[in-house]
C-alpha cells in the first residue's frame, strides 16, 4: 500500500476489514521525491527521500489517542486496564519499506492497471492485484514487535503568576522520536528548553509573569500522543477551568524559508502582530520583520490567510 490520502493506521484497519492478514506500506517518489528518485535528486544532495528511506510511525487509530488500555481516563497505578485483545491496537502485522525495495514487489503485481490518480512515479505499470504475475510468488511478512507495558514520564516546569496564578499558559513538546529525530522532536525540544532557560534567568532577576507558565516535556508521543493525553485526562477539570492557551513546539523547525503556524482563530491576530515585530534572522536587512520577508518570498504563491494560522 502506498502512503498518502489518509492516515496510515486507517489504511491498515481498512485492509484488515477487507480480509488482509498483513500489510506493507511504502513511500512513492511521486509524493516524497518529486525531482526523481535518483541519488543526485535525493538526500543528502537534496531534501527529498532517497530510495532506501523508510517512513515510520504509529498505527494507533483510537479516537482521542492516549493509552489504548485506559481510554478516557488517566493511566495511573490502580486504574483498570483493558486486556490487549479488547484494546484498539492494529489488527494485523504491518511493515514499512522504501520505494527502492517496494518496486520489486510492485512490478510483479497482477490484476488490472491502477487508475491514473492511483499511479506513482516509479518506472513500472501500477496494478491493483490481487496476486502476482507469477502465481508461485509468496510474500511472508515477519514483524518482530512485542506487546508490553513500560512507564513514560512527563516533565512539567512551573513559574507561578504574579496577578493570575490560577490561569495557565502552557508551552510544550514531546521529547521521544523515531530513530534520531533531528527535526521531530529535537527542534521542538531545543526551542522549549531554551524558552525554559530564558524564563529561569528572568525569574532569577525577580521577574514573574502575569499568569502561571507551565513548560511541558511529554513522553510517549510517537506511540499515540500518550504522555500529553494522559496528563490532560488526569487534570481535565483543572485545565478546563484554568488553561488559557497551549503553544505546541513540536517540529518547530524544518527549514528556514517561511513561518507556518496553525491553531485557533482566536490567536490569528496575535500571531500576525508578533510577525511584524520579530526580526528575520536570515534577512540581509537587519530591520526586516518575519512578516515582510515571508511575504516577499511567498506572497505570489501563498495567500496570507493560508500562511498565517488558518
Automatic annotation (TrEMBL):
<dbReference type="InterPro" id="IPR007484">
    <property type="entry name" value="Peptidase_M28"/>
</dbReference>
<feature type="domain" description="PA">
    <location>
        <begin position="4"/>
        <end position="58"/>
    </location>
</feature>
<dbReference type="InterPro" id="IPR003137">
    <property type="entry name" value="PA_domain"/>
</dbReference>
<dbReference type="InterPro" id="IPR046450">
    <property type="entry name" value="PA_dom_sf"/>
</dbReference>
<protein>
    <submittedName>
        <fullName>Uncharacterized protein</fullName>
    </submittedName>
</protein>
<dbReference type="InterPro" id="IPR039373">
    <property type="entry name" value="Peptidase_M28B"/>
</dbReference>
<dbReference type="Pfam" id="PF04389">
    <property type="entry name" value="Peptidase_M28"/>
</dbReference>
<dbReference type="GO" id="GO:0004180">
    <property type="term" value="F:carboxypeptidase activity"/>
</dbReference>
<dbReference type="Pfam" id="PF02225">
    <property type="entry name" value="PA"/>
</dbReference>
<comment type="similarity">
    <text>Belongs to the peptidase M28 family. M28B subfamily.</text>
</comment>
<feature type="domain" description="Peptidase M28">
    <location>
        <begin position="154"/>
        <end position="287"/>
    </location>
</feature>
Amino acid at each position: 500500500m502506498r502512503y498518502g490520502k489518509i492516515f496510515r493506521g486507517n489504511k491498515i484497519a481498512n485492509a484488515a476489514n477487507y480480509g488482509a492478514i498483513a500489510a506493507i506500506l511504502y513511500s512513492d517518489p511521486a509524493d516524497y521525491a518529486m525531482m526523481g528518485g535518483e541519488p543526485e535528486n535525493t538526500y543528502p544532495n537534496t531534501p527529498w527521500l532517497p530510495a532506501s528511506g523508510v517512513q515510520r510511525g504509529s498505527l494507533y487509530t483510537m479516537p482521542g489517542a492516549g493509552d489504548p488500555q485506559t481510554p478516557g481516563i488517566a493511566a495511573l497505578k490502580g486504574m483498570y486496564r483493558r486486556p490487549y485483545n479488547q484494546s484498539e491496537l492494529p489488527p494485523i502485522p504491518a511493515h514499512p519499506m522504501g520505494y527502492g525495495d517496494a518496486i520489486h514487489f510492485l512490478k510483479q503485481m497482477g490484476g488490472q492497471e491502477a487508475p491514473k490518480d492511483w499511479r506513482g512515479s516509479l518506472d513500472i505499470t501500477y496494478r491493483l492485484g490481487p496476486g502476482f504475475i507469477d502465481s508461485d510468488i509468496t510474500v511472508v511478512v515477519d514483524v518482530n514487535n512485542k506487546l508490553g507495558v513500560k512507564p513514560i514520564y512527563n516533565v512539567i516546569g512551573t513559574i507561578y503568576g504574579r496577578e493570575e496564578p490560577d490561569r495557565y499558559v502552557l508551552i510544550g513538546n514531546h521529547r521521544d522520536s523515531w530513530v534520531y529525530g533531528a527535526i521531530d522532536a529535537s527542534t521542538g525540544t531545543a526551542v522549549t528548553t531554551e524558552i525554559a532557560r530564558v524564563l529561569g534567568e528572568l525569574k532569577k532577576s525577580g521577574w514573574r509573569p502575569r499568569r502561571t507558565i507551565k513548560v511541558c516535556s511529554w513522553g510517549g508521543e510517537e506511540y499515540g500522543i500518550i504522555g500529553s493525553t494522559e496528563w490532560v485526562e488526569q487534570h481535565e477539570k483543572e485545565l478546563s477551568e484554568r488553561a488559557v492557551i497551549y503553544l505546541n513546539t513540536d517540529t518547530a523547525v524544518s527549514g528556514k524559508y517561511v513561518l507556518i503556524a496553525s491553531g485557533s482563530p482566536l490567536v490569528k491576530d496575535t500571531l500576525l502582530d508578533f510577525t511584524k515585530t520579530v526580526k528575520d534572522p536570515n534577512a540581509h536587512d537587519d530591520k526586516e520583520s518575519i512578516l515582510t520577508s515571508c511575504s516577499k518570498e511567498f506572497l505570489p504563491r501563498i495567500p496570507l490567510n493560508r500562511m498565517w494560522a488558518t
